[in-house]
Amino acid sequence: MGKAVWLSTAGIAVAAGMLVVGYVAGKPGVAMANAETATVASSEAPLDRVGIENIIRDYLMKNPELLIDMQQALEDKQQEAQRVANLEVIAAARDTIFNAAYDGVVGNPAGKTTIVEFYDYNCGYCKRAQADMLALTAADPDLRFVLKEFPILGPDSSKAHVVSMAFRRLMPEKYGDFHNQLLGGQGRATEEAAIKIALSLGVDEAKLREEMKNPEINKAFNETYELANKLAITGTPSYVVGNEVVFGALGQELLAQKIAETRAAEAAAPAN
Protein backbone atom coordinates (compact mmCIF):
# COMPACT_ATOMS: atom_id res chain seq x y z
CA MET A 1 0.00 0.00 0.00
CA GLY A 2 2.83 2.41 0.90
CA LYS A 3 4.51 1.77 -2.43
CA ALA A 4 1.26 2.48 -4.28
CA VAL A 5 0.82 5.77 -2.43
CA TRP A 6 4.44 6.74 -3.18
CA LEU A 7 4.01 5.93 -6.86
CA SER A 8 0.80 7.91 -6.99
CA THR A 9 2.40 10.89 -5.30
CA ALA A 10 5.43 10.61 -7.55
CA GLY A 11 3.16 10.57 -10.55
CA ILE A 12 1.43 13.71 -9.33
CA ALA A 13 4.81 15.37 -8.79
CA VAL A 14 5.88 14.51 -12.31
CA ALA A 15 2.62 15.90 -13.67
CA ALA A 16 3.06 19.07 -11.66
CA GLY A 17 6.62 19.31 -12.89
CA MET A 18 5.44 19.04 -16.46
CA LEU A 19 3.06 21.92 -15.85
CA VAL A 20 5.87 24.07 -14.56
CA VAL A 21 8.13 22.99 -17.42
CA GLY A 22 5.37 23.90 -19.84
CA TYR A 23 5.11 27.29 -18.25
CA VAL A 24 8.84 27.83 -18.55
CA ALA A 25 8.85 26.60 -22.14
CA GLY A 26 6.03 28.96 -23.01
CA LYS A 27 7.73 31.90 -21.31
CA PRO A 28 11.50 31.38 -21.48
CA GLY A 29 12.16 34.67 -19.73
CA VAL A 30 10.29 33.78 -16.52
CA ALA A 31 10.43 30.85 -14.11
CA MET A 32 8.36 30.59 -10.93
CA ALA A 33 10.97 30.13 -8.22
CA ASN A 34 8.51 30.56 -5.34
CA ALA A 35 5.00 31.71 -4.56
CA GLU A 36 5.87 35.40 -4.28
CA THR A 37 8.77 36.12 -6.61
CA ALA A 38 10.13 34.99 -9.95
CA THR A 39 13.68 34.27 -10.97
CA VAL A 40 14.48 35.57 -14.40
CA ALA A 41 16.25 33.30 -16.88
CA SER A 42 16.79 35.31 -20.02
CA SER A 43 16.31 33.86 -23.48
CA GLU A 44 20.00 34.46 -24.03
CA ALA A 45 20.85 32.01 -21.21
CA PRO A 46 18.16 29.28 -21.33
CA LEU A 47 17.61 27.09 -18.30
CA ASP A 48 19.29 23.70 -18.37
CA ARG A 49 17.69 20.48 -17.08
CA VAL A 50 19.09 20.88 -13.56
CA GLY A 51 17.83 24.45 -13.39
CA ILE A 52 14.33 23.43 -14.41
CA GLU A 53 14.30 20.54 -11.93
CA ASN A 54 15.36 22.89 -9.13
CA ILE A 55 12.58 25.31 -10.03
CA ILE A 56 10.03 22.50 -9.97
CA ARG A 57 11.33 21.18 -6.66
CA ASP A 58 11.36 24.59 -5.01
CA TYR A 59 7.88 25.41 -6.24
CA LEU A 60 6.38 22.10 -5.05
CA MET A 61 8.17 22.33 -1.69
CA LYS A 62 6.67 25.78 -1.15
CA ASN A 63 3.23 24.71 -2.45
CA PRO A 64 2.75 21.06 -1.33
CA GLU A 65 -1.02 21.51 -1.27
CA LEU A 66 -0.85 21.40 -5.06
CA LEU A 67 -0.06 17.68 -4.86
CA ILE A 68 -3.10 17.07 -2.66
CA ASP A 69 -5.34 19.02 -5.01
CA MET A 70 -4.02 17.15 -8.03
CA GLN A 71 -4.36 13.78 -6.27
CA GLN A 72 -8.00 14.53 -5.42
CA ALA A 73 -8.72 15.73 -8.94
CA LEU A 74 -7.18 12.56 -10.35
CA GLU A 75 -9.21 10.31 -8.02
CA ASP A 76 -12.42 12.17 -8.87
CA LYS A 77 -11.73 11.80 -12.57
CA GLN A 78 -10.97 8.10 -12.23
CA GLN A 79 -14.09 7.47 -10.14
CA GLU A 80 -16.29 9.25 -12.66
CA ALA A 81 -14.73 7.28 -15.51
CA GLN A 82 -15.37 4.03 -13.64
CA ARG A 83 -18.96 5.07 -12.86
CA VAL A 84 -19.63 5.67 -16.54
CA ALA A 85 -17.95 2.37 -17.45
CA ASN A 86 -20.07 0.56 -14.85
CA LEU A 87 -23.24 1.98 -16.35
CA GLU A 88 -22.27 0.44 -19.68
CA VAL A 89 -21.41 -2.92 -18.10
CA ILE A 90 -24.64 -3.05 -16.10
CA ALA A 91 -26.70 -2.21 -19.18
CA ALA A 92 -24.95 -4.86 -21.27
CA ALA A 93 -24.89 -7.61 -18.61
CA ARG A 94 -28.13 -6.93 -16.73
CA ASP A 95 -29.38 -10.53 -16.90
CA THR A 96 -26.05 -11.94 -15.74
CA ILE A 97 -25.93 -9.50 -12.83
CA PHE A 98 -29.52 -9.68 -11.62
CA ASN A 99 -30.93 -12.96 -12.97
CA ALA A 100 -28.15 -15.54 -13.33
CA ALA A 101 -29.59 -19.02 -12.78
CA TYR A 102 -26.63 -20.04 -10.61
CA ASP A 103 -27.06 -17.26 -8.02
CA GLY A 104 -28.87 -17.74 -4.74
CA VAL A 105 -31.81 -15.49 -3.87
CA VAL A 106 -33.14 -14.55 -0.43
CA GLY A 107 -35.94 -12.20 0.52
CA ASN A 108 -38.80 -12.04 -1.96
CA PRO A 109 -37.84 -13.93 -5.17
CA ALA A 110 -40.45 -11.87 -7.01
CA GLY A 111 -39.50 -8.56 -5.38
CA LYS A 112 -39.54 -5.51 -7.63
CA THR A 113 -36.25 -4.16 -6.26
CA THR A 114 -33.07 -6.22 -6.43
CA ILE A 115 -29.78 -5.75 -4.66
CA VAL A 116 -26.86 -7.97 -5.66
CA GLU A 117 -24.07 -8.84 -3.22
CA PHE A 118 -20.67 -10.24 -4.23
CA TYR A 119 -19.47 -12.16 -1.16
CA ASP A 120 -16.96 -14.67 0.16
CA TYR A 121 -17.83 -17.03 3.03
CA ASN A 122 -14.53 -16.21 4.76
CA CYS A 123 -14.86 -12.44 4.47
CA GLY A 124 -15.14 -10.90 7.92
CA TYR A 125 -16.88 -7.82 6.53
CA CYS A 126 -19.41 -10.06 4.76
CA LYS A 127 -20.12 -11.77 8.07
CA ARG A 128 -20.82 -8.40 9.68
CA ALA A 129 -22.91 -7.32 6.69
CA GLN A 130 -25.07 -10.45 7.01
CA ALA A 131 -27.13 -8.72 9.70
CA ASP A 132 -27.83 -5.87 7.27
CA MET A 133 -29.15 -8.29 4.64
CA LEU A 134 -31.36 -10.07 7.15
CA ALA A 135 -32.74 -6.80 8.54
CA LEU A 136 -33.41 -5.32 5.09
CA THR A 137 -35.19 -8.39 3.73
CA ALA A 138 -37.24 -8.75 6.93
CA ALA A 139 -38.34 -5.12 6.84
CA ASP A 140 -38.95 -4.85 3.10
CA PRO A 141 -41.32 -7.46 1.60
CA ASP A 142 -40.61 -6.18 -1.92
CA LEU A 143 -36.83 -6.64 -1.73
CA ARG A 144 -35.07 -9.37 -3.70
CA PHE A 145 -31.52 -10.05 -2.49
CA VAL A 146 -29.23 -11.86 -4.95
CA LEU A 147 -26.16 -13.60 -3.52
CA LYS A 148 -23.35 -13.80 -6.05
CA GLU A 149 -20.72 -16.29 -4.89
CA PHE A 150 -17.28 -14.71 -5.29
CA PRO A 151 -14.61 -16.86 -3.59
CA ILE A 152 -11.41 -14.81 -3.53
CA LEU A 153 -9.93 -15.60 -0.12
CA GLY A 154 -8.03 -18.79 -0.76
CA PRO A 155 -8.61 -22.53 -1.28
CA ASP A 156 -10.90 -22.93 1.75
CA SER A 157 -13.24 -20.33 0.35
CA SER A 158 -13.24 -21.89 -3.10
CA LYS A 159 -14.10 -25.33 -1.70
CA ALA A 160 -16.78 -23.99 0.64
CA HIS A 161 -18.40 -22.14 -2.24
CA VAL A 162 -18.37 -25.29 -4.38
CA VAL A 163 -20.39 -27.02 -1.66
CA SER A 164 -22.71 -24.01 -1.50
CA MET A 165 -23.33 -24.06 -5.25
CA ALA A 166 -23.93 -27.82 -5.23
CA PHE A 167 -26.30 -27.60 -2.27
CA ARG A 168 -28.34 -24.81 -3.87
CA ARG A 169 -28.74 -26.90 -7.03
CA LEU A 170 -30.06 -29.84 -5.01
CA MET A 171 -32.10 -28.03 -2.33
CA PRO A 172 -32.81 -24.44 -3.44
CA GLU A 173 -35.65 -24.15 -0.93
CA LYS A 174 -33.16 -24.47 1.93
CA TYR A 175 -30.36 -22.43 0.41
CA GLY A 176 -31.13 -19.42 2.61
CA ASP A 177 -30.74 -21.52 5.75
CA PHE A 178 -27.49 -23.00 4.47
CA HIS A 179 -26.09 -19.59 3.56
CA ASN A 180 -26.94 -18.01 6.89
CA GLN A 181 -25.46 -20.87 8.89
CA LEU A 182 -22.21 -21.04 6.94
CA LEU A 183 -21.67 -17.28 6.73
CA GLY A 184 -22.76 -16.75 10.33
CA GLY A 185 -20.76 -19.64 11.77
CA GLN A 186 -17.74 -19.40 13.98
CA GLY A 187 -14.33 -20.19 12.54
CA ARG A 188 -13.21 -20.52 8.97
CA ALA A 189 -15.60 -21.73 6.27
CA THR A 190 -14.16 -24.92 4.75
CA GLU A 191 -15.42 -27.76 2.60
CA GLU A 192 -15.85 -29.90 5.72
CA ALA A 193 -17.82 -27.22 7.57
CA ALA A 194 -20.03 -26.57 4.53
CA ILE A 195 -20.78 -30.27 4.01
CA LYS A 196 -21.64 -30.66 7.70
CA ILE A 197 -24.23 -27.88 7.45
CA ALA A 198 -25.59 -29.29 4.19
CA LEU A 199 -26.07 -32.72 5.75
CA SER A 200 -27.81 -31.22 8.78
CA LEU A 201 -30.33 -29.67 6.39
CA GLY A 202 -31.15 -33.04 4.87
CA VAL A 203 -29.15 -33.27 1.66
CA ASP A 204 -28.06 -36.70 0.43
CA GLU A 205 -24.28 -36.83 0.86
CA ALA A 206 -23.61 -38.98 -2.19
CA LYS A 207 -25.67 -36.70 -4.41
CA LEU A 208 -24.01 -33.64 -2.92
CA ARG A 209 -20.50 -34.92 -3.57
CA GLU A 210 -21.44 -35.87 -7.10
CA GLU A 211 -22.94 -32.44 -7.76
CA MET A 212 -19.75 -30.82 -6.45
CA LYS A 213 -18.02 -32.24 -9.54
CA ASN A 214 -20.40 -30.47 -11.91
CA PRO A 215 -18.29 -28.37 -14.34
CA GLU A 216 -21.07 -25.78 -14.43
CA ILE A 217 -19.99 -24.66 -10.96
CA ASN A 218 -16.54 -23.52 -12.07
CA LYS A 219 -18.09 -22.03 -15.19
CA ALA A 220 -20.35 -19.93 -12.96
CA PHE A 221 -17.39 -18.80 -10.83
CA ASN A 222 -15.45 -17.78 -13.93
CA GLU A 223 -18.38 -15.75 -15.21
CA THR A 224 -18.65 -14.00 -11.85
CA TYR A 225 -14.91 -13.24 -11.79
CA GLU A 226 -15.13 -11.79 -15.29
CA LEU A 227 -18.11 -9.67 -14.33
CA ALA A 228 -16.39 -8.44 -11.16
CA ASN A 229 -13.34 -7.46 -13.18
CA LYS A 230 -15.46 -5.39 -15.57
CA LEU A 231 -17.12 -3.65 -12.62
CA ALA A 232 -13.75 -3.04 -10.87
CA ILE A 233 -14.86 -5.19 -7.93
CA THR A 234 -11.80 -6.53 -6.13
CA GLY A 235 -13.11 -7.06 -2.60
CA THR A 236 -16.11 -8.22 -0.64
CA PRO A 237 -18.76 -7.33 0.12
CA SER A 238 -19.58 -5.31 -2.98
CA TYR A 239 -23.08 -4.52 -4.18
CA VAL A 240 -24.92 -3.61 -7.33
CA VAL A 241 -28.01 -1.54 -6.59
CA GLY A 242 -29.85 -0.27 -9.63
CA ASN A 243 -27.20 1.21 -11.90
CA GLU A 244 -24.63 1.76 -9.17
CA VAL A 245 -21.79 -0.35 -7.80
CA VAL A 246 -21.28 0.13 -4.07
CA PHE A 247 -18.15 -1.11 -2.30
CA GLY A 248 -17.74 -2.28 1.28
CA ALA A 249 -19.87 -3.14 4.30
CA LEU A 250 -21.73 0.16 4.37
CA GLY A 251 -24.37 -0.71 6.94
CA GLN A 252 -28.12 -1.15 6.79
CA GLU A 253 -28.96 2.55 6.75
CA LEU A 254 -26.83 3.41 3.72
CA LEU A 255 -27.96 0.33 1.80
CA ALA A 256 -31.57 1.26 2.52
CA GLN A 257 -30.82 4.76 1.20
CA LYS A 258 -29.37 3.29 -2.03
CA ILE A 259 -32.46 1.10 -2.43
CA ALA A 260 -34.73 4.14 -1.95
CA GLU A 261 -32.72 6.12 -4.52
CA THR A 262 -33.02 3.26 -7.00
CA ARG A 263 -36.78 3.08 -6.54
CA ALA A 264 -37.10 6.84 -6.95
CA ALA A 265 -35.07 6.73 -10.16
CA GLU A 266 -37.14 3.85 -11.52
CA ALA A 267 -40.39 5.68 -10.67
CA ALA A 268 -39.17 8.81 -12.43
CA ALA A 269 -37.99 6.96 -15.53
CA PRO A 270 -40.31 7.26 -18.56
CA ALA A 271 -42.34 4.15 -19.34
CA ASN A 272 -41.19 2.11 -22.31
Question: What secondary-structure arrangement, pairings included, does this model have?
Answer:
Elements: H1 2-26, E1 30-31, E2 39-40, H2 49-62, H3 65-92, H4 94-98, E3 104-107, E4 113-119, H5 124-139, E5 143-149, H6 155-170, H7 175-184, H8 191-200, H9 205-211, H10 215-230, E6 238-241, E7 244-247, H11 252-268
Parallel strand pairs: 4-5
Antiparallel strand pairs: 1-2, 3-5, 4-6, 6-7
Question: Could you walk me through the main structural features you see in this protein, from its secondary elements to its overall organization?
Answer:
With 272 residues, this protein is an alpha+beta fold. It has eleven helices and seven strands. The chain has helices at 2-26, 49-62, 65-92, 94-98, 124-139, 155-170, 175-184, 191-200, 205-211, 215-230, 252-268; strands spanning 30-31, 39-40, 104-107, 113-119, 143-149, 238-241, 244-247. The strands form two sheets. It has a five-stranded mixed β-sheet, with helices on both faces. A hairpin with a 2-residue loop joins strand 6 and strand 7. Helix 1 (2-26) packs across helix 2 and helix 1 (2-26) crosses helix 3 (65-92). The longest helix is centred in the N-terminal third of the chain and has 28 residues, at 65-92. The two termini are 47 Å apart.
